[in-house]
Amino acid sequence: MSAEAGSRDFEALEAAFREALIAAGVVRDDEVAERVELIYSRTPALGARVVARAWFDPAFKARLLADGSAAVRELGIEVGTLKLVVVANEERAHNLVVCTLCSCYPRMLLGLPPDWYKSIAYRSRAVREPRAVLAEFGVSLPPDVAVRVHDSTADMRYLVLPLRPKGTEHLDEAACAALVTRDAMIGVAIPAAPTSASSAP
Amino acid sequence: MVHDVGGRPAHEAIPREQHPFMPWEMRVDALMWLLTDAGRPGGPRMTVDELRRGIESLPADEYRTLGYYEKWLLSMLRVLGERGTIDAEAIRRRAEAIAHERGHAHE
Amino acid sequence: MSTAAHARFVPGDRVRVAQREVTGHVRTPGYIRGKRGVVERICGAFRNPEQLAYGVWDGPVVPLYRIRFAQADVWPAAESALDTLDVEIYEHWLERDDA
């Protein structure tokens, strides 16, 4: 690639590239627009549904841990070629997901990854000092809780199944799903029950 | 290699700012999805592995400083140019013309 | 996803990641090469990214494993003796660890 990359107009480059692909009959303009809509349609709410179902249905949870993609399809979520591994937090184990080599991420369930997940700082530190990384995200674990880091180096994609927070026994499945954030499904956050002072999580 | 960063000493805080996704970036993502889709007529035109390889072959300073989708776009141009699917140089010239036209449009 | 009927290793096997310097595209991070771990699961068999990255799309599938490492076995100063690190590694990067 060239030395003037820094001054290049990438928006113009994308336009020229797309023009050429359309002229070559490789893609159509309407297909590109359609895929952009599909990209936007995937949000962490999909992953949150999966988590909440696992909280309410232990048999589903077992199937989810055995074959993540198959279990997710039971909920009517189309995930294409995603090969999902779901890793469950336990009282004495906390999971954290990273892709050190690039930025692999379960996009069909969580949408686009955040910039911090793709940063060299996260990718280099999460495998080596996960507890320091977690502390930076405000997660402090007792010393008797093991941290399990998952480096997404090949074909599998990872979703953390957080523990259901205490104090949610009165909530239904949809209300529980609303407590599950993207960051909790990556492993840098822990879901909290809504406080009595707030009406919404 | 520059992209193989796991465990490298990095005492910097993890940057938490989220930039808003630009429409051209989303189109790059969509194009990549289309180009690697085995289910479309004509089959896949490249693989995600080729995308990664193209990104990993960027000069180290570009790898570190270019934006995420900027690297994708450069890699896609390289891989598809190698394959003869597109003429990367013609695209670069056309991009300069487009950028020039846009510059004049704001005068 | 192909079955891994000819997988060399099974969950529980002790393995060591090859210490190999390569140029070109690989999915075995440098930090894990030469390290010892245990097979956590067989993920299946997939085409080799080292070939897929260079236009060879019809090569043979290779068994892929998740290997679990103790962080204390990977880094000189791991944060905790309890912590683990799971990495997906292709079979041709693994050797049986009889030590």
Keywords:
heterotrimer; A: 201 residues; mainly alpha; Nitrile Hydratase, Chain A; two-stranded parallel sheet; 11% strand; globular; C: 99 residues; mainly beta; 36% strand
Strand element count of chain B:
0
Radius of gyration of chain C: 14 Å
Share in helix of chain C: under 10%
The sequence of SSEs of chain B as H and E is: HHHHH
Global shape of chain C:
globular
Please report the distance between the alpha carbons of the first and last residues of chain B.
44 Å
Poorly predicted tracts of residues of chain C? none
- Tell me the strand percentage band of chain C: 35-45%
Put simply, the count of helices of chain C is: 2
SSE order of chain C: EEHEHEE
Structural class of chain C: mainly beta
State the distance separating the first and last CA atoms of chain C.
33 Å
Please describe what this structure looks like:
The complex is a heterotrimer of chains A (201), B (107) and C (99). Chain A contains 11 helices and 4 strands. With 201 residues, chain A is mostly helical. Chain A has 2 domains: 9-40, no CATH class; 43-186, Nitrile hydratase alpha /Thiocyanate hydrolase gamma (Nitrile Hydratase, Chain A). Chain A has a two-stranded parallel ribbon with strand order 1-4. The longest helix of chain A is centred in the first third of the chain and has 14 residues, at 10-23. Chain A is globular, with a radius of gyration of 19 Å. The N and C termini of chain A lie far apart (47 Å). The model of chain B has no long low-confidence stretch (mean pLDDT 93). In chain B, α1 packs parallel to α4 (68-83) and α2 packs across α4. Chain B has a domain at 25-35 and 43-105. Chain B is built from 5 helices and no strands. The relative contact order of chain B is 0.11. Chain C has 2 helices and 5 strands, in the order ββαβαββ. In chain C, strands 4-3-2-1-5 form a 5-stranded antiparallel sheet. The N and C termini of chain C lie far apart (33 Å). Chain C is globular, with a radius of gyration of 14 Å. The mean pLDDT of chain C is 94. Classes of the chains: A mainly alpha (201), B mainly alpha (107), C mainly beta (99). Chains A and B meet through α1, α2, α7 and α8 of A and α1, α3, α4 and α5 of B. β3 of chain A pairs parallel with β4 (84-90) of chain C.
